Amino acid sequence: MGPSHKADASLRLHAPSLSLVPQRKRGRKKGKTKCPINSITLVGFVGSDPEQRQAKGNGSKFTVLSVATQRSWKNADDERNSKTDWHRVVVFLPRLAEHVATTIKKGAHVLIEGSLVSSTYLPSNGKSKKAKAAKITSWSIRADVVRKLDRGEPEPDAPAATAAPESNEAPF
């Protein structure tokens, strides 16, 4: 097992899970060759409150959120540089989509597991049909697992704990 599997396992043990999908086993079966897998794991911060939408065709609800990740490196002059990348995350699983929409807020530290999905379309720019149209490809992540990694911070909507009135009776 490499270090990435250890890190992944430690996140599973310590992070509260919002996943409604059974965890996958990471072992390899003997005698079978693995096919290429479209799998992605992101750890980042939510850029704005998730938005719940409804599909035009079948009316099912899904949730969209943007997640920021940051990468840093040193250039040839030994100066540190960093860049923030934004990722569009879409949750189609109904119960998970509802849960993400109600519990995840802007600024939350999250772990996303899912698959990378591309969409190609022709932009409608009002030019004539003879004009050469460039196809645009956009990428998004179809999330199967969303975990909130924040710890020890109370939810903003959570009511404050109130002291129970003193009584001589046992609470149970």
Question: Any key phrases for this structure?
Answer:
single chain, mainly beta, OB fold (Dihydrolipoamide Acetyltransferase, E2P), five-stranded mixed β-barrel, 2 helices, 6 strands, globular
* Fraction of residues in helix: 10-25%
SSE order, one letter for each helix or strand: HEEEEHEE
Largest sheet composition? 5 strands, mixed, barrel
Any low-confidence stretches, pLDDT <50, length ≥5? 1-23, 158-167
Q: Could you give me the name of the CATH homologous superfamily of the domain at 38-73 and 80-123 and 133-151?
A: Nucleic acid-binding proteins
Mean pLDDT: 77
- Return the CATH class of the domain at 38-73 and 80-123 and 133-151: Mainly Beta
CATH-defined topology of the domain at 38-73 and 80-123 and 133-151: OB fold (Dihydrolipoamide Acetyltransferase, E2P)
Q: What is the percentage of strand-forming residues? A: 35-45%
Q: What's the number of helices?
A: 2
What best-fitting shape do the alpha-carbon axes yield? globular
Beta strand count: 6
Query: Between the first and last Cα atoms, what is the distance in angstroms?
Result: 47 Å
CATH architecture of the domain at 38-73 and 80-123 and 133-151: Beta Barrel
Report strand order across the widest sheet.
1-3-4-6-5
